[in-house]
Amino acid sequence: MERKVVVLRHLQDLLAEDVDTFVAAIDACIEEVDLVITSTGRVVKAVSDACKRAKAETIGAAVVSNQNERIKWVETKLVEAGFTYSPDAGRVIASWFGGDHARIAGLLATLTSAYGEGAKLSRSDIEVFLGEAGSVAPWDLTDAVDAGDSTKALLMLHRMMGDSHPLQILALLANRYAQMMKIDGRGVRTAADAVEILGGKEFTARKVLEQYQRLGSAGISRAISLIATADLDLRGGKDWEPELVMEVLVARLSRLGGAAPQRARAYKR
After folding, report:
1. C-alpha dihedral over 54, 55, 61, 64, to 10 degrees?
2. Fewer CB in 10 Å around end: N or C, the chain?
3. What is the pLDDT of residues 135-174, one digit of tens each?
4. If DSSP codes are grouped into helix, strand and coil, which group holds residue 112?
5. Where do the CATH 1.20.272.10 domains begin and end in the chain?
6. Which CATH architecture has domain 138-263?
7. Assigned architecture for domain 67-127
8. Average pLDDT of 178-198?
9. CA–CA separation, 201 vs 249, rounded Å?
């Protein structure tokens, strides 16, 4: 039997006057037609109800960027799969897979096969089936460095080096501090001021500004100097393995990030 696929993109932009027509089309959809709908926003209730009547399958494709969002997303998937789980289960999975969200479905299928539907999962139950560590988003490394968390920063570094050349990671770090240099001495006080200079999103600009305020001009200069030295060492300036060069660099940058904010230091007389 020949089948047809009909795709409707950006359902969130459907005009109000077209809702009834679209709902009627869903209700009248025949077996030989696969209707695929995409939406990045709110779906009106009438359309949502029509999809439920048609027993439509919902496939989540949410973009999750920071760690807390990843954990919540993973926990949602565990609930949808019918599992109960230990309090740290979501964090374990999110931390291990990083940005490789596509691997979650495979893990859930494996857990269902191993333990059955509705099983209660402990951390050890999950860790057995995690496999290789997933990819790491660039901000996972830079956020750890900014926070002065050298242990986490080194863990993120090792994960990144599985997919990226050390010089690529060095360029990422260099760009981070180059952004801080752009606002140095410019009288920047707010995230909006930083956006005017750096462009991009206010959230990202705020993080750059906060770290700039923590390090100050001297700290940024020190970071740039450390990166320049690492660049030379990676190109043969020092007889070290590339991994060691990057480990030393990230540890030193993290130590800078963990220092007291320049404007918050107190001195005793």
Report:
1. 120
2. C
3. 667 788 899 999 999 998 998 898 888 777 889 889 989 9
4. helix
5. 138-263
6. Up-down Bundle (1.20)
7. Orthogonal Bundle (1.10)
8. 90
9. 28
